[in-house]
């Protein structure tokens, strides 16, 4: 959102929100590639219910050493996520941390290299979510 926010506010928004269309953003962030041990360290500034997905699929793992449940509340602060299949092809695309209600409303991540003009996310129908097993796995809260 160049030119619309002050520098410090814009930096906060860029770090803690994901674009879902040309003018709508939701809480979340693209996570960095895993460390050599497979773990992914990240910070959360907005405490809410989040899901972790990669290639439009939920990613199983542990968060801060405890099994992660899609849609669970994540507190503000530093966290470490360890995907169950660390290093596998299933986690070769760095995961996305996204506000669970966005998923429940049909917004799904697109590849990071897709231009925002084409929407970094696409809206999908609930039947696509159900087909991929996401409807039951993502609780809005």
Q: Can you describe what's shown?
A:
It is a single chain. This protein has 141 residues and is α+β, with helices and mostly antiparallel strands. It has one domain (7-135). Helices cover 18% and strands 33% of the residues. It has four helices and twelve strands, in the order αββββββββββαββαα. The strands form three sheets. Strands 1, 2, 4, 5, 8 and 10 form a six-stranded antiparallel beta sheet that branches. The longest helix is centred in the first third of the chain and has 10 residues, at 7-16.
**Which structural category do the helix and sheet elements fall into?**
alpha+beta
Number of strands: 12
The helical percent reads 10-25%
SSE succession: HEEEEEEEEEEHEEHH
> Sheet bearing the most strands, described?
6 strands, antiparallel
Helices, by number, come to 4
Low-pLDDT segments, ≥5 res: 117-131
Give the overall form. globular
Compute the number of structural domains.
1
What is the terminal separation in angstroms? 27 Å
Mean pLDDT: 76
Rg: 15 Å
Strand content: 25-35%
